[in-house]
Amino acid sequence: MASVVTECLERVASAGTGSATGSYFPYPRAGKTGTTENGWDVWYVGYTPKLAAAVWMGDLEKSSPMNSAYGGTYCAPMWAKFFAAALKDEEKPGFKDFPWTFSPWEGKMQAMSPSPSPSASDSATPSPAATKTITPKPTATKTVTPTPPPTPTKTPKPTPTATSSAAAKKVVTAAGAGGGGSGLAGAVFNALAGLLGI
After folding, report:
1. Within-domain flag for 117
2. Looking at the whole model, is its pTM more than 0.85?
3. Interval 24-78: pLDDT, tens
4. Within its chain, how far is the Cα of 105 from the centroid?
5. Helix, strand, coil content of the chain in percent (nearest 5)
6. Distance of alpha carbon 189 from alpha carbon 197, whole angstroms
7. Domain range holding 20?
8. Does 43 reside within a domain?
9. What is the rounded CA–CA span in Å between residue 46 and residue 167?
């Protein structure tokens, strides 16, 4: 198989896009040119029975289009000049030809094509075997219902009952009459009397 590929690539090097190699290296050779669609990279990869090499042109730092640059216009001649110098004192033999013949394959898998209809059988029609069906069982899931926070209760403030100043005066007078005019009791009495305006 490799000799068939080499035969194809010999044609590229002698009469195809790599034919410029013949101007500098007119010996048995095989190769292939290459050019990217945008012209950023061009190359020629070639070989002889003794040596193989590739020549590439492009910009390693950035993608720069090269006008009118092709693998066959620049890289193929460079490749040929290198091979002329490298193999200057070497023999330049041709490629060996290995005939490759294709023969149809008659193997086991070829005979396994599906038949158009099922083949007849001498046995009675088999009854279908019971198939075990696995029914998934539901798994219990724990539902957590959040407890609402307690509602704060308001304790009503006591409402003071209004007393008439005469009744208050009576109470204060009664408290004062009890002999609380001196000491701590007297001080409380005087403070209350001042607050109540008596």
Report:
1. no
2. no
3. 999 999 999 999 988 899 999 999 999 999 999 998 888 888 888 899 999 999 9
4. 44
5. 35, 10, 60
6. 12
7. 2-86
8. yes
9. 129
